[in-house]
Amino acid sequence: MRAQPRRVGASLAAALTLTIASPGLEALAQPVRADAASRPRVTETADGLTLSVPATGRTPGYTVAVSTDGDLALSTERAGTPVLATAGGDTGGLRFRSGGVWQHATDVTAWSWKNGVLTLTADTTLDGAGVEARVTPAADRYQLDWNVEGVEPDRLGLAYDLASAGHWYGHGEAETPQGGPGTDQPWPLDSGEVEHPGFSPASYNMIDPFWYTSSSTGLRVDTGNVMDVAINEGKDGLGRFDVRSADAYKATVFVESTPLEVYRDYVGIVGKPAKSDATYEQYAKPVWNSWAQFYTNVDQEKVLDYAADLKADGLDGHALQLDDKWESNYGNLTFDAKAYPDPKAMSKKIHDLGFDFGLWTTLWINLDSDNYQFAVDRGYLLGDAADPAKPCTVTWWNGTAGIIDLANPDARAWYTGRVKSLMSDYDIDGLKFDTRFFDDKCAPRDGYKPTDYQRLGTELADEFDLQGVGIRVHWDSTAHRAGFVTRQVDKGTGWDSVRASVTQNLAISTIGYPFVTTDMIGGSGGQPAPEKEVLIRSAQVASLMPLMYSSTSPVGTIDVTTGQKVVYDQETIDLYRAAIKRHERLAPYIWDQVQQTLRTGDPIVRPLFFDFPKDRASYTVPDEWMLGPAVLAAPQVTDRATRTVHLPPGTWYDVNQGTVIRGPKDLKGYGAPLGVTPAFVNLRAKGADKALRALRSNDAPAASVLLAPDAPETGNGEAFEITTTATNWGSRPLRKVTATLAAPTGWRAEAVTAATTRSLAAGATLTTRWKVTPPADADWGSHTLTGTVTYDGGTKVSDRVPVKVKPEPGTVSAPYRTADTTGGAQFAQAGDQFAIWAGGQDLSGWKDEKAAVYESGVVGDKSTVRARVVSQNSASSLGKAGLAVANDLAAPGKGG
């Protein structure tokens, strides 16, 4: 028989209350306080407790339902609807790890309500261990503190049912199985998977322990310790926020009426910028950095040619920075004399071309640096966590190093002195700090915590001009208040990274770092040089952000993977330059938003639902954002020439077509050819006049063509249907409109409905159905269909979709044979193409389960066999297709 929870007497309750009367509670950004007539209250039911917090003039009110029978669970509700609930089942809501095994709180055995604090005592799934939790409500939030008694755990965590709160946002740069943060940033977070161990104040990622939801709740974990965060890991629908510490778990749960109000509550705690570190010119013009242009294959001659080419092609900028590989060795703080024979002359030439000059620098001193032993002998480096008497050594992307200990005044003075002498000697105007200020392998100096190093790094950087690229400091309130520009982690050079640059700025901006810029336009992650369209679209995205951060020249660059020069065409230069000019025209409006942020703390780049919280469709739009209150940015982030644009409620001016549109409305098939950057101005918003002057354009095509479906699939010789929809987005009728569909050689495309019209009115569409048939011997894999609309005597717009020709199981003809060790394998052949359907265990494992198409006796001495894998679909990341050579394909372990 399960014991009922007992209410603790006044004396015990008073003792418990004393333990949580900490100064930190008063520092909670002055939460709205209820008046005496509407104080929180606790009521008891048969299976739990209800903590009720009444609404005020500024807050919606809420309840916290506490389950006391079974697992301890907390369900936050507003107007009777759950808006945030802890997880149940084996995961548990209040969870801890002991002896390597996760446990969680179960039955509540006692509770008290005294002096505004609800104290709960609960059993756990571990014999001899208990949990004590304290809930301290305010009008718009509650503090949740809890600890484990009876054992010494190494982890404490909260787990939530993600769906209970709707969609989840925040976090910052997320590590994901899909490549984040370099090529992936899910938006909302629960639309993908976040697996982020080592979520830490020392992390290079821009992160803060703050999350908010579409239900207008939020979570802030108050810790300086390393966390492990998982959101929808393995698509499990859970959010797990674990802290690697036995100390009491402290969290604030916000309950508001809109997500923006949750954000404002959070900023009220961590602080808003006191200033903007970047100047007006740094907002208005891009900074050019050498990294993605040359990576480490750089020298004085290349840098000067780079600067001269930019100047000659009218690619403006306020500064040019020399990134990695200028030092004689990492930590020497001296130029490599061979690569830079006359750095003073180089600096002068860059200034003569109209750029300020900047250098990349770090706090890492490599073990083979001239300065390493000097710094060790004087105690200038962080100590090792295991033995603070020894210097801490860490591995970074350029070797093994120590880290200058900024908590040591002598070390800081030595470092800043060396850097400032370097800057003075060579007329260097600013710096790009690219470093960690602390590492979890190291020990903080006596009297300091790991989080203090974010503050110390902030204070160091504040002594220098950061030239609009800012610095990656986070977690500490000093970082929030410093007003630095925040640049993203290195991105790839493909379309996935273009999309991630948008959602990552939304994530960073809404955890309290409002002066955001993308990573270098076109990417900087060591991948092949960006394609023309990727580079242009990246520039268009950046033109509608607060700042532009450039590197890859649209004139030409070096492909780091091949060492070959890549030359872009004149259109690339022209459209990149147009993006720079658009941003420069928008600068007065952006500067107004900077000043507004300094007053309110509100982000400049923000999701649509911050401004339109009742527009439910806005909560899942990943490729649009508000730039201040007046500009809705919707640039194209795929290789298509059309896109769907979602407009929230309001009166919107289409800056490309010169038309007024009333929202909410979805613009399907909106025309976005390479030279068009979709953007809309909210005519009723403050700043609309400046935005209109900056963004109005009269050179966008009036029509677009949309192909549907997006990615059709078919089989050899199998007909399928596709539609082209021509839309007139302009303000006048279009004449002589004709739609055509171009298919690959040997394919047939026949119009089933009308493909022409004499006139297409403003806002009207012409939809044509097409019957498309591939040949019977069509190559499997992807093919392209191109739809084109011609109007007004010759103006053309086009778009394209991929079509996948899929094989169907059949037979394989001689001289080819089949073999399998899995059972149930299927095969197909079309000429020299083959398809295999098979399951089983890893090809390299002892079971060696596989299926194969093979030819006997073809491999002899010095033979070469080639096969090309066209496509692979696998239910597991371990699935693989390829080439094998073996004496006996049917024998286990003979896979080759």
What does this structure look like?
The chain is of the alpha+beta class and 896 residues long. Among the domains are: 6-26 and 38-167 and 207-270, Beta-galactosidase, Chain A, domain 5 (Distorted Sandwich); 360-433 and 435-471, no CATH class; 602-699, Golgi alpha-mannosidase II (Immunoglobulin-like, Sandwich); 704-806, Sandwich (Immunoglobulin-like), CATH 2.60.40; 810-896, no CATH class. The chain is 19% helix and 33% strand. The chain is built from 16 helices and 52 strands. It has a 19-stranded mixed sheet that branches. Strands 34-35-36-39-37-38 form a 6-stranded antiparallel sheet. The protein has a 5-stranded parallel sheet with strand order 27-22-21-20-31. The longest helix is centred in the middle third of the chain and has 31 residues, at 570-600. It starts with 5 loop residues before the first strand and ends in a 42-residue tail after the last strand.
